Amino acid sequence: MDGSLKFAMAAMLTSLLLLEEAHAIDLSGAWATNADQCSHVFTRKGRAHQIGFTALSQQHGGGFIVEADRLRGKFASCKIKTMKEDGQTVNIIAGCATDIMLSNVQFSLKVLEPNKISRTFPGMQDMEISYYRCPI
User: Which of 44, 57, 105, 108 lies in disulfide reach of 49, CB 3.0 to 4.6 Å?
Assistant: First the structure.
């Protein structure tokens, strides 16, 4: 193979990889049920300024935090086992731990806008909760 053909193939593969990455849904960050309540739900703590929950976060609608392969709520921490995108919907199965039990939980999150998602519950057609990404 000559140099120009190798370069063309490398450029094509790179563009395909970039195109695939451009379509990946980004869920990272802190998500609250009410965008106006972000400062009442989340806080930055410690030297690393990690995002955490305020003491009274549940009184302001609550929320969750997505970090790499983890989901965190006020009372549970989950490790994502599988995640599959289907259009604008992300289906997640996570192993979750609370102070008293371990369980697998299924999450279906639909992207409505770049900073707004909706959680639907399998088997409950009309059950849905909207969440807004907080600029923390």
Answer: 44
